[in-house]
Amino acid sequence: MASEALSRVPEVQIDGDGVFKYVLVRVSGAGAPAKDVVRGHGWAEYHADLFERTAEELARHGLSCECLGGGRLSHRPEERKIHVYGYSVGFGRADHAVTTEKLKAEYPNYEITWADEGY
Asked: Contact at 8 Å (CB) between 9 and 35?
């Protein structure tokens, strides 16, 4: 059951454009291998806002999660570019290389870059 619920969790959910905070979250369920997902939205004032909403949504499906870190995304759909950078004061810097690979799978026709610099 947990593996079925886990398989339905989208790997990437981000806003269609703009600059906004993101979190990298490890999702797990009883007896199922964990998977990492990216969540990024402009409505979030803090990285914790993103994580808390994600955790609530996952809990409704019997899944748990932990925040692996955060940063920022600059999504420019008109240029087909996403840049991953920065860090979360509360959760630390996410592994931007992992985030970039997740984004490349979701946006195969985009140029996706990352850097540890910036906030």
From this structure: yes
